[in-house]
Design a protein that fits this description.
heterodimer; A: 305 residues; ABC transporter involved in vitamin B12 uptake, BtuC; 2 strands; B: 74% helix; globular; transmembrane helix (chain B); transmembrane (chain B)
């Protein structure tokens, strides 16, 4: 097992799994901090993956694909805002509806636009290539992990400190936190919490869109029905666990990403696919249980919550 | 006074009109995208949802409606008790899988095998739901997350079992062998509708009676409406949670068994997951604001959308996934009218999260 972890090709595959979860979870963090209970990350991610393929196929550029993915995600964010913020729908119901909407719409459009059933791949879909970072090659584990990944991975890594600073210093970041913690205070300051939450949802859509782009035009060059495969739900769990704090999110995303890529690896060693497929979910449960025990122990000892 | 009320009614009517216009607009846009002939699509939709030779399509719709309504009732029991059990899919799969395997391997007269298999399916569904409840009560995993995450392992376990040890290899498909023909649920005389719908009706009746005419059910609903009050008056909240979840799961398991013995006569990989029965059940119960007697109607409504869409695909070339879009858009527009119980308990969840 330990040898496996130091295998360069395994290490190199971890970021492929970390990136979508991390980007989606950072998006979820925006909502969490703004007081929007958004469990539709799965739908946002799926829509992003599809829009990325559409954008990349028609423009021939992965960057425009990523832009299309962000727009697709933002569109879902706007739908969420319209029905939750403006019409006052229950966030859980709206989330469930958006997840179903994304599943239906992507499959429908896959057939309507590309006349493809189930999956669509085409040489015209331009994917992201690896970015080589000079001077990293000689490092044993870190070299393959941090070198030669898709640009979206580096973007996700940069987004963590940026998000941390954003929540701590930036005016909108502070307002987002106020919308979550003390909306009445925000109103007293003459700012509408609803507007702030709308921005949070749009940002969430854009980040989830990028996460989806990593799935469809960086990890592979194709779209498969339901290709988000529960990763959005894992991002939701990550957000709930960390209460939307960016640095702990990075850690959690790396844990989940490692398990995800590990399960991919074990499949190659002859374990039935169905068992490796369920590993990320069992790992998520295990992390949840461990953290809750740890927290309970801490509060029992009278420590700060 | 009177004009005030009239204007409220008018406003309500206008808002529904706007919603309907939106839904129709979205659908027309989607159909125009694939260049489908509208008239043909519409008639194919209606024909396939309610028509057919000797009403065979209507029977298919009814049979699907029963499964959706069953899942709706299962989830309603949980929701009304303030429990966010969104693991219906896992409980359904557990039931369907166990029903098929039990029927394949249990010896004995057919009626005994059928009864025992259905019972086993209900136990399996209840067990899977209880697992989520135990995770919440003893290991601190929120029910919403735990019940959802448990959907995936059982899905893959079922998939593995019918792909390897119990696969009907000769069929070439990923599915189990057929259960003995003597255990198949018979059709109503002169129709192609299996009597599974009666099992679902019985379960629904039980749920309504339990919820409204027993002390336990009253306590469970009280827990859903005001958890703080329930705790203050000393109700055994943990026990109520587990009981309610077990009942929810048992009904979901029963639905799985009905799908096996009434419809597919075996376990086919994905047969309970792909049609989104569990999620449709959730939105079916939300559509009618968790009013029990309206659940069959909304189940029928969503089933008609799905079978109708399948007809549009065959006759007018409209991809059948339009049904999912339609369902989602409808529930979005109704979402703001969901009963207070759900909102109350989501507030509790938010409050509980801060205290934890």
């Amino acid at each position: 097992m330990l040898e496996l972890l130091f295998d360069p090709s395994f290490a190199a595959s971890v970021p492929r799994f970390v990136t979508p979860i991390l980007l989606a979870a950072l998006g979820g963090a925006l909502c969490e901090r703004a007081g929007v209970f958004n469990i539709a990350l799965e739908g946002f991610l799926l829509m992003g993956a599809f829009a990325a393929v559409v954008g990349s196929y028609f423009s021939g550029s992965p960057w425009l694909g990523a832009l299309a993915a962000m727009l697709g995600g933002v569109a879902m964010g706007l739908v969420f805002a319209e029905f939750n913020l403006r019409r006052g729908g229950d966030p859980i119901v709206v989330s469930i509806a958006i997840n179903i909407l994304a599943a239906g719409l992507t499959t429908y459009l896959l057939r309507a636009i590309f006349d493809a059933m189930g999956a669509f791949s085409d040489p015209a879909i331009a994917g992201f290539g690896p970015v080589s970072i000079p001077g990293l090659g000689w490092l044993p584990v870190l070299g393959p992990v941090f070198g030669g990944q898709s640009p979206l991975f580096y973007l996700a890594l940069v987004a963590v400190p940026v998000a941390s600073l954003f929540f701590a210093r930036h005016r909108l970041g502070l307002r987002i936190r106020a919308a979550g913690e003390n909306p009445a205070g925000l109103v007293a300051g003459g700012v509408s919490p609803r507007r702030v939450r709308l921005y949070a949802l749009m940002g969430c859509g854009a980040l989830c869109g990028l996460g989806g782009a990593q799935l469809s035009i960086a990890n592979v060059n194709l779209f498969v029905e339901n290709m988000s495969a529960g990763r959005g739900w894992i991002a939701v769990v990550a957000v709930l666990l960390t209460r939307g704090r960016p640095w702990p999110l990075l850690l959690i995303a790396f844990i989940f990403g490692t398990v995800d890529s590990l399960s991919f690896r074990v499949q190659g060693l002859g374990m039935p696919q169905q068992f490796t497929d369920m590993m990320p979910y069992l790992a998520t449960l295990a992390v949840l249980i461990t953290l809750s025990w740890w927290r309970r122990g801490r509060t029992a000892n009278g420590g700060a919550p | 006074m009177r004009t005030l009320r009239e204007s409220a009614v008018l406003r309500e009517a206008v808002s529904w009109g706007v919603a309907l216009a939106w839904i129709a607009g979205v659908l027309f846009l989607l159909m125009a995208l694939v260049g489908a002939p509208f008239g043909e699509a519409l008639s194919a939709f209606l024909q396939n949802a309610f028509g057919g030779r000797r009403l065979s399509y209507l029977m298919a719709t009814l049979s699907r409606a029963a499964l959706i309504a069953g899942m709706a009732v299962s989830v309603m029991l949980s929701f009304r008790a303030g429990l966010f059990n969104i693991g219906g899919e896992g409980q359904l799969v557990a039931g369907g899988l166990v029903a098929a395997l039990a029927a394949l391997f249990l010896p004995g007269p057919p009626l005994f095998v059928l009864g025992a298999s259905i019972l086993a399916a209900m136990v399996a569904g209840a067990g899977w739901a209880l697992l989520a409840g135990l995770l919440q009560l003893h290991l601190g995993v929120p029910l919403l997350v735990g019940s959802l995450l448990l959907n995936y392992p059982i899905r893959y376990i079922a998939s593995y079992l019918v792909a390897h040890p119990f696969r009907d290899v000769q069929s070439g498909m990923v599915q189990s062998h057929l259960v003995p023909q003597a255990t198949w649920l018979p059709y109503f005389p002169g129709t192609r509708l299996d009597i599974g719908i009666l099992f679902i009706a019985a379960a629904s009746l039980f749920a309504i009676i339990y919820s409204h005419f027993t002390l336990h059910g009253y306590h469970a609903r009280m827990n859903g409406l005001s958890p703080a009050f329930a705790r203050t008056v000393g109700l055994p909240v943990g026990k109520l949670t587990l009981q309610t979840l077990a009942m929810s799961g048992a009904i979901a398991g029963l639905v799985g068994a009905v799908a096996v013995f009434g419809v597919h006569h075996r376990y086919i990989d994905g047969m309970l997951v792909q049609p989104l029965y569990a999620w449709t059940g959730i939105i079916a119960v939300l559509l009618v604001g968790m009013i029990p007697w309206a659940v069959p109607l909304s189940g029928l409504f969503f089933a008609a959308i799905q079978t109708g869409a399948a007809g549009m695909e065959r006759s007018a070339g409209v991809p059948k996934e339009i049904a999912l879009v339609m369902q989602a858009v409808i529930i979005l527009f109704v979402a703001s009218r969901v009963s207070g119980a759900l909102v109350a308990s989501s507030e509790r969840r938010a409050g509980g999260g801060e205290g934890a």
